[in-house]
């Protein structure tokens, strides 16, 4: 089958799009992947999927195919060469389709309700999701894959959702591995396959996407932002060596809350209070003191609420980072020096932690533009 003209309309965090990528990779088909902005859909998407206007859409020789499991079946039939995704036996095929349908009806909603939910409802949804995953685990049994020894249709249908598990676990405060150890072992087995590993975004990227989604849709809580404080185990010594060496930093990436209406420009300081967030983490007392004495905190909070760049990033040094300083050193600094010191820890834009390690462009800290100062990935 001709495969030179294959285009996929996709949106990278979508598990439905990942299914199609895995199926294409299993068959070794090369294709062009076009990312859609689902808030401003392209005319190509609306023309190719006029009924649902949703991704994924596979366009094969100018003809569109919609609905992810329908696309996976199409790929299996249009490119008949091995590996086959659906079994040839009619009964086994019907069972594979049954479980594909079960996943469609239960997993997406189950996952989304847990990471977006709150309170009692979230507790209910956690139970429902775990029940659903346990049914799938029972169906898997002791088999390597859902179809037996070979990776196939049901694996393709389900495995993309597993890259959302970290997000579900973090926001839902649960351990899927504790509840469904065999299912998690299966997910790890699937990840050994190149077709899967190259088609799934890293769980951290999904988490960062989900965090931003919650902010954009007003679903976040202070606690969500707090759990986004993650200790990074790299050293920023060159960055700060002019004053002291640092041992532990947390990256606090903050995105602004969306204004209630275009006319609502009043800063809502209750919505994001950096000191409040840092205080809950309990180990940022020195940083908080410095922020307060320099008044920088007001600037940060205001900047967070008004910035157009999507947020700011604070590379927050915890109390232990200051432990190697000579006693009284911080107190000996003038207010101006304290301000300069703090500015080294702030990027005027939001950088997700998953992107942080792979940054290639030069990022300026707030202090970076001044002569004699150091830039972040200099
Ligand atoms: N049943 C569809 C679901 C696809 C779907 O939900 N796509 C979402 C992205 S994850 C979408 O395009 N949403 C845009 C919209 O609803 O307008 C499939 O399996 O392909």
Automatic annotation (TrEMBL):
Domain FAS1: 271-378
InterPro entries reported for this sequence: FAS1_dom_sf (IPR036378), FAS1_domain (IPR000782), Glutathione-S-Trfase_C-like (IPR010987), Glutathione-S-Trfase_C_sf (IPR036282), Glutathione_S-Trfase (IPR040079), Glutathione_S-Trfase_N (IPR004045), GST_C_Tau (IPR045074), Omega/Tau-like (IPR045073)
GO cellular component: cytoplasm
Superkingdom assignment: Eukaryota
Alphabetized Pfam families for the sequence: Fasciclin (PF02469), GST_C_2 (PF13410), GST_N (PF02798)
PROSITE patterns noted in UniProt: FAS1, GST_CTER, GST_NTER
Alphabetical list of CDD domains matching this protein: GST_C_Tau (cd03185), GST_N_Tau (cd03058)
GO molecular function: glutathione transferase activity
Claim: Electron transport is one of the keywords in the record: no
Gene Ontology biological process terms, A to Z: glutathione metabolic process
Class of enzymatic activity (EC top level): transferase
SUPFAM superfamilies, per database record: FAS1 domain, GST C-terminal domain-like, Thioredoxin-like
Residue span, GST C-terminal domain: 89-209
EC code(s) of this entry: 2.5.1.18
Ranges for domain GST N-terminal: 4-83
Keywords: Transferase
Catalytic activity: RX + glutathione = an S-substituted glutathione + a halide anion + H(+)
Family named by the database record: Belongs to the fasciclin-like AGP family.
This protein's name: glutathione transferase
Species this chain originates from: Vigna unguiculata (Cowpea)
């Amino acid at each position: 089958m001709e495969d030179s003209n294959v285009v996929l309309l996709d949106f990278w965090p979508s598990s439905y799009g990942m299914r199609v990528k895995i199926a294409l990779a299993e068959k070794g088909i090369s294709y062009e992947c076009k990312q859609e902005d689902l808030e401003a859909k392209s005319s190509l998407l609306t023309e190719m999927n006029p009924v649902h206007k949703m991704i994924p859409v596979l366009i094969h020789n100018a003809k569109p195919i919609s609905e992810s499991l329908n696309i996976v079946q199409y790929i299996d039939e249009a490119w008949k060469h091995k590996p086959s995704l659906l079994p040839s036996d009619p009964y086994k095929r019907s069972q594979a389709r049954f479980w594909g349908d079960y996943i469609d009806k239960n997993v997406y909603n189950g996952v989304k309700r847990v990471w977006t939910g709150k309170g009692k409802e979230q507790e209910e949804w956690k139970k429902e999701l775990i029940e659903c995953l346990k049914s799938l685990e029972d169906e898997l049994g002791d088999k390597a894959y859902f179809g037996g020894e070979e990776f196939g249709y049901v694996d393709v249908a389900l495995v993309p959702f597993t890259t959302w598990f970290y997000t579900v676990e973090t926001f839902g405060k649960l351990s899927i591995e504790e509840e469904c150890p065999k299912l998690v072992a299966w997910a790890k087995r699937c990840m050994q396959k190149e077709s899967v590993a190259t088609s799934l975004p890293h769980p951290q990227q999904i988490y960062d996407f989900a965090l931003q989604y919650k902010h954009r849709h007003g679903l976040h809580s202070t606690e969500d932002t707090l759990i986004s404080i993650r200790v990074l185990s790299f050293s920023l010594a060159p960055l700060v060596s002019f004053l002291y060496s640092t041992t532990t930093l947390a990256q606090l990436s903050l995105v602004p809350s969306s204004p209630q209406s275009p006319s609502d420009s009043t800063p809502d300081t209750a919505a994001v209070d950096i000191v409040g967030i840092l205080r809950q983490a309990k180990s940022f007392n020195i940083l908080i003191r410095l922020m307060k004495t320099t008044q920088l905190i007001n600037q940060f909070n205001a900047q967070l609420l008004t910035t157009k760049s999507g947020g700011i990033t604070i590379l927050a040094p915890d109390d232990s980072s200051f432990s190697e300083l000579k006693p009284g050193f911080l107190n000996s600094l003038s207010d101006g020096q304290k301000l300069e010191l703090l500015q080294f820890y702030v990027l005027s834009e939001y950088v997700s932690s998953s992107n942080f390690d792979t940054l290639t462009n030069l990022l300026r800290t707030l202090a970076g533009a001044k002569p004699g100062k150091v830039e972040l990935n200099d």
